[in-house]
Specification:
The protein is an alpha/beta fold and 326 residues long. The chain is built from twelve helices and ten strands. The strands form two sheets. Strands 3-2-1-4-5-6-10-7 form an eight-stranded mixed β-sheet, sandwiched between helices. A two-stranded antiparallel ribbon has the order 8-9. Strand 1, helix 1 and strand 2 form a beta-alpha-beta unit. InterPro entries: Inosine/uridine_hydrolase_dom, IUN_hydrolase, Ribo_hydro-like. One of its GO terms (molecular function) is hydrolase activity, hydrolyzing N-glycosyl compounds.
């Protein structure tokens, strides 16, 4: 059986690293390339983080492309230090001084377009960060979305619960205009793993301890980069996630990747039009679900609501038993 072709667009923080590792471990997935965008860290740090993840999994042959260093229109919000200033927990000391030589010269948006054009209607695009590269791609080539097989997005929110602002999720809040463009103009099948979806299908901290204490290179890497990060501490100060959903372990980006790898992980979803709010001091960047056809849009997306948590947990656990040769 032919492998599923995947392009990953990422702002590689710790949860992105886990999602990338999950894709690399999937036996029926071929990662054509990884495109980098600002978000959890500056785009140069993101590029280095992706190279590090590929190196840990012994998959350095996968091309990495540098993309946008800021949002489509407005000034960038400050990148948070949720995963440390470098996106991977500020624990990696042996930085590669020649990392830039390993990044492809082609811009991420152009690479996306080329890889999809070379494999029309075969590529699943998995977007794990702000959607700036995707918005640039559709501006450069308006026919780009219709050449995709499908699109999986980790981002947005469905209940008005925000994690960086009162009402908006991080990836959409970092570049609301790009999120708006993508959800208006990408008419391919689109699956959204929202912030609430991830949090409502969370795993336990006991599972997390078992996950990172496996005897394998990828698990040891994940244990290292989470070791000093408060986002991966059960004892950390209560944050918005804990207030809304209770204490739990959530590997956000892995939920979108799992849905792409194995659709049976998703057990319930809602199909409806959505729109990203661009105005206001409170709701800017919030994703609104139109369950009553108020917007009269012709295009709907699939908003994921429930998953098989046991199956998702198995995908996570198995993914950290790397490197595994293909």
């Amino acid at each position: 059986m032919a492998k599923k072709l995947v392009v990953i667009d990422t702002d590689c923080g710790i949860d992105d690293a886990q999602a990338i590792i999950m894709a690399l471990a999937a036996p029926d997935v071929q990662v054509l390339g990884v495109t980098c965008v600002f978000g959890n860290a500056a785009v140069d740090d993101v590029c280095q983080n992706v190279l590090r993840v590929l190196s840990v999994c012994e998959r350095e042959g996968i091309p990495v492309f540098r993309g946008s260093g800021g949002p489509l229109v407005r000034d960038s919000m400050s990148c948070t230090d949720h995963f440390g200033s470098d996106g991977l927990g500020d624990v990696i000391e042996d930085k590669d001084p020649r990392w830039e030589e390993k990044i492809q010269r082609e811009h991420a948006a152009n690479a996306m377009i080329r890889l999809v054009c070379e494999n029309q209607n075969q590529v699943s695009l998995v977007a794990l960060g702000p959607l700036t590269n995707l918005a640039l791609a559709v501006r450069l080539d308006p026919s780009f979305p219709q050449k995709l097989k499908d699109l999986y997005i980790m981002g947005g929110n469905t209940e008005g619960k925000g994690n960086v602002t009162l009402c908006a999720e991080f990836n959409f809040a970092m570049d609301p205009e790009s999120a708006y463009v993508v959800l208006e103009e990408f008419l391919c099948p689109t699956y959204i793993a929202s912030w609430e979806y991830a949090c409502r299908n969370a795993l336990t901290w006991e599972f997390f301890e078992e996950l990172i204490n496996q005897d394998a290179p990828a698990a040891r890497f994940m244990k290292t980069i989470t070791s000093k990060c408060s986002a991966y501490s059960k004892e950390a100060m209560r944050n918005k996630r804990d207030v809304y959903f209770g204490p739990c372990f959530v590997s956000y980006d892995a939920y979108a990747m799992a849905a792409c790898i194995d659709g049976s992980v998703v057990t319930e979803s809602v199909e409806c039009p959505v729109r990203v709010e661009l105005q206001g001091s409170i709701a800017r960047g919030m994703m609104a679900l139109d369950r009553t056809d108020t917007l009269k849009k012709s295009h709907s997306v699939i908003v994921l609501t429930k998953c098989d948590v046991a199956k998702f947990g198995r995908l996570l656990m198995e993914s950290l038993r790397q490197p595994c040769k293909k």
